Amino acid sequence: MSNLEVARSLELLNRRPSFDAITSDEFQAFLGVYCHHIPNPMRDLDTFRFKTMPAACASRDPKYLEHCELIRLAKWMYSAGHRLVTRSHRRIPVAAASNIAKMRRNWRGKVMESTCEAFEIYAKNKNIPCAIEMIKQLQGVGLTTATLVLSSAYPDDLPFFSDALCNWLGLEGLEKSVSGYMRLVEGVNTVRKRVQSPSSRYRRITALNVERVAFVIAASESMQVRRLSIDIMQVELQRQLGNGGGSVAVFAARRTQSHDVLPTAFAVKVVSSLNFRVRYLQMLKELTILGQLSKLPLIKNHFAQFYGWKFSHGHFFIAMQLLQCDLETYLQQGSGYNAREITWNQRRPGVPLQRPVGQLIEGLRALHKAGFTHRDLRPKNILLDGEWSLKIGDFGISKHVIDGLKTKMSDAPETWGYSAPEIIEAGASPLQTYSSKVDMWSLGCIVYRMLMGRRLFTNLNDVRQNRRGNRLKPVLSLRNSSTTKVSI
User: Fold this and answer.
1) Burial of 157 (0-12, 13-18, 19+ CB in 10 A)
2) Could you read off the pLDDT of 416-432 as tens digits, one per residue?
């Protein structure tokens, strides 16, 4: 795909495309966008579809993913008492962990056979009650996984609906709704028939490619949230405020011409084209969350304001409210090697800790009420405005609460100090789940940092000990200390 074709495809996306009016030529253009701008884990569905949540598990070895998913399927079939399971097979799930070849021979064919049978019965309307009952049995692994197995057998007739696609289309929890799933299948088949062409050029319009185009269109629709019309040349980047790593930087900026949305001074996150493909999903997710949060009442009191985004000259720009600093920097004295951590009371002796903690609680309450979990709440992601009020920022890895499964977090020490054990161990166990309560753990660690002037957990082992019930001894007892004075 040439640069000119890519540019034309991106221009089509800027026109708010929809399946209601898509043409065959546009279908091919969007498919090209998928192949050139979607990260490899999503595009690998062609050659390797036997895995769940490919975007979230991108860093894992494919064989490991297949291994875990097969074990999960085997354990589900064992516990559900599937009609194809016999007594001679009862020890297979235990042996599967050490002998994946044996597990494949005994289980993969049966899983695929039973899954295909259930959906074929349902699709042909021969015996609806029987099919529904069989599909209910599949809920042990979810219809997404069942569809994945079926798709590997019939790639041209039924696509693999990834979790990412369902989320962008607003279909969270779809795996629990048979009727919702079938409506989506009917919709995809309708689109495929409408854009299908006898020409050999359009023979690639399979159900799997329809899913890919649906992902591109859904992503572009989410990106229409506050897309800035200003020319990037009318913005002057000033000092650098931070560096997110991987070709991501945050700058203080100033517009050189009048604009109806942007204030004179604002902050802008810049993602280089070198890293755009890797961070594509993360950028879309952050834009979607920012767009939804911007509609909440009293948004200015809890979160950094979101002004809009712009894709120009091979760079991705997100314009945000320009704030004074982050909480981590604010609770430090000195700089460089001479920097030392201080408490909130030392920095703001006249302001009780009750005030900033209350602001964080209200912000989290609004975030959770909107259906999101932050997952990376730490002093670096908490910002202070001109009145030194706290605001929550950086929603790059936030998720909808219902989508809080199988997430691998960063191994950076900054994350260890504030992330809940469920978040950290999600990287080691593909079955680890968590809820919005993980943000409350992070909040407790932040309050401790503000109160004591040090982190509660300094390494990953401390967090794991606490997870196992080996409670850590407090570093300093406030009750017995005559030198430490705090205002709460």
Assistant:
1) middle
2) 678 887 777 655 444 45
Last residue of a domain, one of 188, 223, 258: 223
Say how far apart CA 234 and CA 107 lie, in whole Å.
Answer: 61
**Total structural domains in the chain?**
3
Specify the pTM: 0.57
Cα–Cα distance measured from residue 476 to residue 486, given in angstroms and rounded to the nearest whole number: 13
Q: What's the residue count for the chain?
A: 488
The tens digit of pLDDT for each residue in 188-220 reads 555 556 555 555 444 555 555 666 676 666 656
For residues 207 and 87, membership in a common domain is answered with yes
What span, in angstroms and rounded, lies between the C-alpha atoms of 439 and 458? 18
What's the confidence (pLDDT) of residue 153? 43
User: Is 369 marked as a binding-site residue?
Assistant: no
Tokens 């903690």 sit on residue: 357
- Domain, as residue range, for 265: 225-322
Are 335 and 376 in the same domain? yes
Residue 266: CA atoms inside 13 Å, Cβ hemisphere, count? 22
Q: DSSP 3-state helix, strand, coil percentages of the chain (rounded to 5)?
A: 50, 10, 40
